[in-house]
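User: Hi! I'm a student and our assignment asks us to look at how structure tokens line up with a sequence. Could you show me two examples?

Assistant: Happy to help. In each example below, the sequence comes first and the structure tokens follow. Example one:
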Amino acid sequence: MRVSCSQCGAEHTVLESDFYLRCSYCDATILVNPPESTPVIVAPGATPEEASRLFPPGSVSSVELRYFPYLEVEEGSSLRPCFSQPWSELDGYSPPAGDRRIFDRSLTEPEQLIPFDREMEESGGKIVYHPLLILMLKLEGYGEGVLVDGVSGRLLGESPLAQRRQTSAMTYSGLFLRVLAGGLAASIPVFIVMKLLGADGPLSFLVSLIMAALVGRLVMTGLERKETVE
């Protein structure tokens, strides 16, 4: 489908799901085949700054506001997702109620609206655009996006930073056990040999501790080199 900009006359190819877009030539906004029932937009209650404070300082690289379309079949009924965005955090999610406003160009930018599924819209009802904040987190070597509800300010799903902390804790626990096992394995034979040679108990124990510490350090060095290579 092709439409012309009412301001500069430039032609644009649009998708069936598009109804509000921006002219790439003159920057004007264009309405194309709007939904049968005038959509409503839920006003955001949480700011990007508030959403960023859910994470450690410096861990958020960007925050973008997006409006996701939901279908309200009847007044006051539960909202059904009317989009095909691949966000697993939104599976089964029911957005909270908020301050609804009749759609107006002054309320949002075309880039902020997620396209809606017209086949679902044909079943009847009203399109309700719910605000969600997309935050990009800076992780080691890559970035990952998370969703924060734009009304409640609540994080959807589990934070990848929390998952990494849990993984690190498990890694260090395993490292401690391996170092402990290596140190004990080396200290016991040394203690026995020292006793056979007639060394007194305190001396044997001291030498065993020194040997355990040396072996433990060697084990840690080897593991650190292995992690560096990986």
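Example two works the same way, sequence first and then tokens:
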Amino acid sequence: MPERLTPRAITSLAATGHRIAIWDAVVPGLVLRVTPAGVKTLSVWYRVDGRARRHTIPGRFPEVDRAGARVRARDVLARARNGDDAHGAKVAARKAPTFEELAKTFIEAREPNLAASTATEYRRMVACYIHGSPLGEPGPGHPARGSEALPRRPRTPRARHGKQGLPARARGLPLGRA
């Protein structure tokens, strides 16, 4: 039977040997779940196209408070009434093609119209981006290396004495001739 989820009632719940589900009396479909380890999560049950779905609200209690969970639950329920499936969107995002799959599809589709050297270069660039440098390590600037910056070009050495390291005007030469 649904009961009103109050902060005191939620914090007083203790872990038992099995999972507990307590339904909220204020927002239909909102459920507080307590695992045997004592973890408290909030989720919302709804129906889309006749199928029952459960959307877990990201975060755990007390990070996600009761009022915030109710707002999110009402949002999920409103979208479900319009036919939008929050759980289905998560599943579809997991099944979305990766960059590697998209790159291979792109190369295979265009390979008949490409020169052999261009197709080889495309495959090499994709392999370097996905698997790192040809030596097996990601190169500089690769996302796997984190925030490591690209190496700077070494400066050309300038003479410390004499006029050769100075600009043309300082050396007494006319502009345009170095």
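Here is something you could point out in your write-up. The helical segments are 7-12, 66-81, 86-94, 99-110, 116-131.
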